[in-house]
Amino acid sequence: MDLRAQRAAAAALKDRLAALGSSHHITNGAALVIDNATGGIIAWAGSNDFFDAANSGQVDGVTALRQPGSALKPFLYALAMAKGSRPSDLIEDAPIYAAGGHAPLNYDKTYHGFVRLREALACSYNVPAVRLVVKTGLAAFLAKLKDLGFDSLYKPAEFYGEGLALGNGEVTLLELVNAYAALARGGVWLPARFELESPAAPARRAIGRSEAYLITNILSDNSARAPAFGLNSAFNLPFDFAAKTGTTKDYRDNWAVGYTPEWTAGVWVGNFDGSSMRRVSGISGAAPALKEIALAMEKLYGSTPFKRPPGIRTVKVCPDSGLPPSSFCPSSMDEVFSAGNLPPGQCAQHSPAAESAARPSPAKLSVKFPSDGDIFRLDPQTPRAAQALFLKSAGAEGEITWTLDGKELAERGEKVPWPLEPGSHSVFFTEIRNGKTVRSGPARFHVVR
After folding, report:
1. How far lies 108's CA from each of 281, 396, 424, 449, in Å?
2. What pTM was estimated for this model as a whole?
3. What stretch of H or E contains 348?
4. Does 264 share its domain with 230?
5. Greatest Cα pair distance in the chain
6. What is the rounded radius of gyration, in angstroms, for the C-alpha atoms of the chain?
7. CATH number at residue 383
8. How many CB atoms lie within 10 A of CB 92?
9. Total number of domains in the chain
């Protein structure tokens, strides 16, 4: 252990718990930092105050069993990619009823339609995770978690059900941080230990090198997580940092785990008596403490960019279909893939055969503003009524009608104001030409708090 790191981790935990205060009913937390190269433990804070008997300060939160919530999702997505899924694949975020009549909900209580796997993981959507565990196999997912050192998950797969994808099994912070350290090493698991000289279990490959990189690339993608967490979340650091949160039912547990190639850190906050916190999620509860620990570790140990392993390729895809774009696609984006699992074919979603009678005209109508993929942030210091953007058209010749999120706007014209609303949005416009309705391509954008 490093006394400097230990003091930094304990101070970050104590400061965060003090900032949350009694109003959120949070009494304790734990933090752990591991050296990725050796598995050596750099810092271990088991509670906020060892001598605080009233809040069970002598319980060790690093080894206590708690439900991890969404913090297990990266390992599910890694398994899915090993079985042939890609970051650009579409998965449906719509109501689903799992075994036993359980209907999982997203944290924001809304559904987002078809989303790419990158967005589903980065934004931690619950419904796609349940669909994915059904597709990959519950037993296979549990086996993968055991490969990653989650020995606490000793019960059969049927005991956990599809809820395992949402973290309903109990694990320890030690197991969780060490599993993320395997991602940081490119998929190689090492035992975490205090004494490096003592014999230890041998290293083993738990995740393929390509899959580990793809997951790391997603978890360090600030733009991908912005629709759910905003552009300036606690994970937006001045160096490469891959991170994930977890929040359990009734706000009983908050988790945040992150890593660089050099070190991995994790934080849990909650109450040792199992009582619920008051509306504190992983991004607002544990993540700020993790941020402070990460900044301290970077000063002490440094950090380097994540290295792309051989066999990874960057390919342009259509954001709507996740497939290589055709000449009809209104936009494209870069995505990373394993060279042996590139997206097949070409996008047909925007081909003439797929267009309706209101397909884009030969004049190439387009939304001039906002641009596809834009992200806007609400200013907390400005009244909401004063925050708006102007929708602007290009290529139109006559009166145009705007449609945003499937609803026609009352105001017409080439420049129309729209009050900012949080969420993911899609906008296009139509005009009448020679008695026919022609339509622009859509522009998709996000508004974050």
Report:
1. 11, 37, 12, 13
2. 0.80
3. none
4. yes
5. 82
6. 24
7. 2.60.40.10
8. 15
9. 3
How far is it, in rounded angstroms, from Cα 155 to Cα 151? 10
Strand-strand pairing, 204-205 and 366-369? unpaired
Pair (295, 318) in one structural domain = no
Q: Is residue 176 located within the same domain as residue 148? A: yes
Over the stretch 303-333, which tens digit does the pLDDT of each residue have?
999 999 999 999 999 999 999 999 999 889 9
Structural domain span for residue 234:
3-301
Domain end (from 353, 385, 416): 353
Residues 6+ apart with CB under 8 A from 281: 107, 245, 247, 251, 254
- Contact 358/436 with Cβ under 8 angstroms? no
Residue range 2-31, pLDDT digits in tens: 999 999 999 999 999 999 877 888 889 999
Q: Which two tokens stand for residue 124?
A: 């931690």
pLDDT of residue 146: 98
Cα–Cα distance measured from residue 390 to residue 392, given in angstroms and rounded to the nearest whole number: 6
Rounded to 5 degrees, φ, ψ at 251 are: 60, 40
Q: Please report, in angstroms and rounded to a whole number, the separation of the first and last CA atoms in the chain.
A: 39
Domain end position, chosen among 284, 301, 318: 301
Residue 170: C-alpha distances to residues 72, 155, 166, 182, 256 (Å): 11, 10, 11, 20, 16
- The reply to whether 231 and 375 lie within a common domain is no
Same domain, 319 and 372: no
Name the strands in the sheet holding 415-419, side by side, starting at the edge strand that comes first in the sequence.
366-369, 388-394, 415-419
Tokens matching residue 257: 């785990």
Q: At what angle do helices 73-82 and 138-147 cross, to 10 degrees?
A: 110
Nearest to 16 by CA among 249, 328, 269: 269
Do 18 and 36 reside in the same domain of the chain? yes
Place of tokens 């509860």: 285
Claim to verify: residue 346 and residue 373 sit in the same structural domain: no
| Same domain flag for 85 and 207 | yes
Q: How many CB atoms lie within 10 A of CB 349?
A: 15
